[in-house]
Write a structure and sequence with these properties.
This protein is an alpha+beta fold. Helix content is about 45%, strand content about 15%. It is built from 10 helices and 8 strands. The protein has helices spanning about 100-105, 120-135, 140-160, 165-185, 195-200, 205-215, 220-235, 240-245, 255-265, 270-275, and strands at about 20-30, 45-55, 55-60, 60-65, 70-75, 80-85, 90-95, 115-120. Strands 1-7-2-5-8 form a 5-stranded antiparallel β-sheet. Strands 4-3-6 form a 3-stranded antiparallel β-sheet, covered by helices on one side. A hairpin with a 2-residue loop joins strand 3 and strand 4. Helix 2 packs antiparallel against helix 3. The two termini are about 20 Å apart. The mean pLDDT is about 85.
Length: about 280
């Protein structure tokens, strides 16, 4: 997401409202910023399956390898991001199960947690069946999909229950969330590391260390990523480069151009050119 660190999942994202599961296949290009995604969180449990390539997933400030034949679980409200770690990019499946659907079937996602890194052939097979049932249409799709998803969740509850969240860690994570929300809300202004640390209620040195653990980036790197993603939106709408530069919080055009190329893989003018060519 570009405009919110908290990711909301509306029913419009479901292929069928009777199957409250978001399923999509995605490919992370090797050309753009090592394919890094924003650190974000949501209330729904998310399950990721790497299909090709390899990557790294950061969940609640912990780093996990992400390779084929394994699954990564993102528990509700855990901040997470990932990036590919190879020249060919990374292809993966994502399945996000609606929290209300879980509750209606006796699973409280606010209390039950799963292991994050899972290497289990049966778990992966059940995942594949659930994913396939949710995306393949048919006369019994709703019944098959809901049954397959519940069988997968039941197996995960029995075989891969996670440890309860540490209270102190949760408190620190909530403080860091405030800082990232502050950055995303004020990226167009002249904000500093001190400002972000104060938003979290931490000292600058402690904040710098913990922020890097959470997002995998420095404060400046994360701020530039937010600014450049928003700049890309403006450029795709036809906003001139200079106007975009200052609207997104950059103070020097040359610095903006360098940062944009480094993060987005192309120059700002190339985005404008692609728009004119209809690409």
């Amino acid at each position: 997401m570009i405009n919110a660190w908290y990711e909301r999942h509306s029913y419009s994202l479901y292929r069928n409202e009777k199957i409250p599961v978001i399923c999509h296949k995605d490919h992370v290009s090797a050309e753009k910023n090592k394919g890094m995604t924003y650190t974000h969180w949501h209330e729904n449990p998310e399950f990721l399956r790497c299909r090709r390539g390899k990557g790294v997933v950061m969940v609640a400030a912990e780093v996990y390898s992400f390779v084929p034949d394994m699954m990564v679980t993102v528990n509700p409200n855990d901040p997470h991001s990932f990036y590919h770690d190879g020249p060919e990019g990374m292809t993966y499946d994502c399945m996000i199960v609606d929290a209300n659907f879980c509750r209606e079937n006796g699973l409280d996602p606010g209390r039950v947690r799963f292991d994050v890194a899972v290497r289990d052939e049966k778990a992966c097979a059940l995942y594949d069946r659930a994913f396939s049932s949710c995306v393949q249409e048919g006369p019994l799709q709703v019944l098959e999909a809901r049954t397959a998803v519940l069988e997968f969740l039941l197996y995960m509850c029995r075989q891969h229950p996670g440890s309860p969240a540490d209270g102190a860690a949760v408190s620190g994570m909530e403080a860091l969330k405030k800082a990232v929300i502050y950055i995303r809300s004020n990226y167009m202004n002249a904000i500093s590391l001190q400002d972000a640390a104060e938003a979290a209620g931490f000292s600058v040195s402690y904040f710098s260390r913990e922020f890097k653990k959470l997002t995998g980036q420095t404060f400046v790197g994360f701020l530039n990523m937010v600014r450049c993603e928003n700049a890309a939106q403006l450029l795709r709408s036809g906003t001139p480069v200079t106007e975009t530069c200052y609207a997104c919080g950059f103070r020097e055009l040359s610095y903006f151009s360098r940062a944009f190329r480094q993060i987005m893989g192309v120059s700002p003018s190339e985005i404008l050119r692609q728009r004119k060519e209809g690409r």
